[in-house]
Amino acid sequence: MEAMRRVLAMAGLLVLALLAPGCGGGGPSPGDGRVIVLGFDGMDPEAVRTLVAEGELPHFARLIDEGAFGDLATLEPMLSPRIWTTVATGYEPDRHGITDFVAVDRETGREVPIPSVARRVPAIWNRASEAGRKVAVVAWWATWPAERVNGVLVSDRFGYHFLHEEEGAAADLAGLAWPPGRVEEFLRYRPDPRAVDPAELRPYLELDPASVPLDRGFDDPAAHFLWAWSTAEAVDRIARHLWETDRPDLLMAYVEATDTVSHLFGHLWRVDGLGGRLAEDQRRWGRAVDAVYVLADRVLGRFMELADARTTILVLSDHGFRLGVLPDDPRRAGRPLAAGAQQHRAPGIVGLWGARVRRGARPEGARVHDIAPTVLALLGLPAATDMPGRVLDEVLEVEEPPRVPPATWEPAAELPDRDPEADAMLQHLQALGYVGGTAPRAGGGAEGERFAPTVRSRLLAAQELVKAGKMDEALALLRELEDEVPEVGAVHAGLGTALGMLGKAGEALAEFDRAIELEPDRAMYHYDRAVALVELRRYDEARRAAERALSLDPDLADARELLGQLGPPPSLSPNRELAAKIAERAAEAARKGNLEEAERLLDQAEWIDPQLPLVPKYRANVACLRGDREEMIRQFRRALELDPDDPVVRHNLRVLGALPDGR
User: Fold this and answer.
1) What DSSP line would sit under 430-475, residue for residue?
2) pLDDT tens, 430-439?
């Protein structure tokens, strides 16, 4: 149980409730408050603080000064639908049922964006509706098809509807919003990339929507940017329209653009010394992240202006973002890095402003599970006894109503015959690296459920079982996955972890070796292999495995700590140590697009130490960037001669069909 509590403590909820002008006014007033929750996907706390200090985000600055602001602990792995549904329900993913971006439709065998009917517990808007409160929900994750609420729900397919050729067709509108009779009203606010004002963007980037070929869709970074920007503006417009016309007690609106633009151009953010194509891309797009954060600040400011004395605003993000981290391959500049959640980092943000917020208070240990109980308390409504989160009462003057037993709940939505936005949504997710790569397979899930969890979802479930100490169940699930998808490295890594915890270090090592064979560039697999080698008292091999992990991910603190525990490595000759440092400088130059400088530095390193394996390995990388396949193969083979155990080099040669002796 203690292990599970630690897992639950990782969850972080991001919620935004509209606040009254001024702050901290009045004592507890259960039942008569209004709440606005603004969710900005992927908004990074350090980026917010940097831009606030530079004067770019005046409304976030006001929130920090007049309200409460801090970090929000989130879930691992940082996949948006599971986190945002935890925010909306107060439950962990294995309970609420939204575990990934996609699910497998058992009837068709297709991978589809996760639908609302897969959710197994009520959301905040359901609890508020049942209590007679009026709600408005706009574009929240996993809300298609729209369910019946006491008020309005505009689903997460809203941002994709403009892509249809047959606009307004009845079949295309099914499930888009509740109530159905108001769909045409909401479509007046749908995204229009051509309507983006170039003058608004000009302080940050040079982009004229009239010159962008929108028919290239998510494959073109400029078109993708315009879609994200115009969708954010559309969400803002429709949310403000509903706040003013419908006057809901609870408004929840979700903006994805802060995450999407970070995926597209975040690697260019405030990086010095770029050359070649990267330098040109930075000139055009280097401040795109600043621009979308400024857009988010304007959204916050508009709701601050609309807030009355009863309103609390909660602002949150599901995770932060690794901004300013260049890809190893600079040819990927100007395109989404397709790295998915690997670009995410913890924590997210949580901010509160307005009615009943204590000025200058700071949330302590806030996590995503805490948002739902906090919002319910602000509405004067009870949370359920089995919700693991708490009310953020250190920053609020509010009394939590006594908790009530969990109630049975059935989804209040009907699944339409068609999901016309599904393909566009999948293309967007694929462009960002969130989905794709593993063929969909129906398996697992509760009996009778139409939508089955993906392989990734089942792997996550196995990880949770391991953390909970349920090793027999974890191994059974992992062996089942091994039979179904033996080519997925994460399955073998999961088996290695479970076997290692059972004290079977030799069997664990074999599984980590298989995972590395399938995916040699995954730093965690090498670190896990190092741990297994320590258990087997093969310390020199463990040191090399940990060093390999750090070479693939210099930020992997666990590998650095393990190396410290293993003690100093065998001393290198002064020449090798100097040559290795120069080779690393060459690799950094290549990442920044400065290929001539990289070659010059590699010449120096090779002159100092002709037998250093890093030199031909990095020469192969430069050859790859130049498009010289034969030179790339030649250099990789030379690297393998010098270091026959390098799994990354061996894998690259195998991919090129050039592994010596066909090994």
Assistant:
1) HHTTSS-SS------S-TT-SEEPPHHHHHHHHHHHHHTT-HHHHH
2) 777 777 654 4
- pLDDT category, 447, cuts 50, 70, 90? low
Strands 250-255 and 34-40: parallel
Domain 574-662 in the same topology as domain 2-378: no
Tell me, what amino acid is at 531?
A: V
Q: pLDDT digits over 156-196, tens only?
A: 988 886 554 444 444 468 899 999 999 989 988 988 888 99
Q: DSSP states of 2-30 as a string?
A: HHHHHHHTT----------SSSS-SS--T
Give backbone dihedrals phi and psi of 138, rounded to 5 degrees, phi first.
-130, 115
The crossing angle, in degrees rounded to 10, of helices 557-566 and 539-552 is: 150
Rounded-to-integer distance, Cα 90 and Cα 275, Å: 47
Q: Which two tokens stand for residue 371?
A: 């948002």
- Residue 451 confidence (pLDDT) above 60: yes
pLDDT of residue 327: 73
Let me know: does 303 contact 242? Beta carbons within 8 Å: no
Residue 486 has pLDDT above 50, yes or no: yes
Report whether 86 contacts 368 (CB < 8 A).
yes
- Picking from 577, 319, 388, 537, the residue whose alpha carbon sits closest to that of residue 8 is 388
- What pLDDT, on a 0 to 100 scale, did the predictor assign at position 566? 85
* Token representation of residue 233: 């503006």
Q: Indicate the pairing of strand 111-113 with strand 344-345.
A: unpaired
- Residue 265 pLDDT > 60, yes or no? yes
**pLDDT for the residue numbered 646:** 77
Length of the chain: 663
Run of H or E including 280: helix 276-285
Contact yes or no for 84/421 (Cβ under 8 A) = no
CATH superfamily of 454-566: Tetratricopeptide repeat domain (1.25.40.10)
555: which DSSP letter? T
Question: Which neighbouring-strand residues pair with 316?
Answer: 39, 350
Name the residue type at position 270. Answer: R
Strand partners, 409: none
**Topology given in CATH for the domain delimited by 574-662:** 1.25.40
What are the structural domain ranges in the chain?
A: 2-378, 454-566, 574-662
Region 292-317: mean pLDDT is 97
Given a cut of 60, whether residue 529 has pLDDT beyond it is: yes
CATH 2.40.128.110 for the 2-378 domain, yes or no: no
At 70, is the secondary structure helix, strand, or coil?
strand
Q: Which residues contact 291 (CB under 8 A, 6 or more apart)?
A: 201, 203, 204, 205, 261
In angstroms, the CA 387 to CA 384 distance is 6
Q: Are 581 and 572 in contact (CB under 8 A)?
A: no
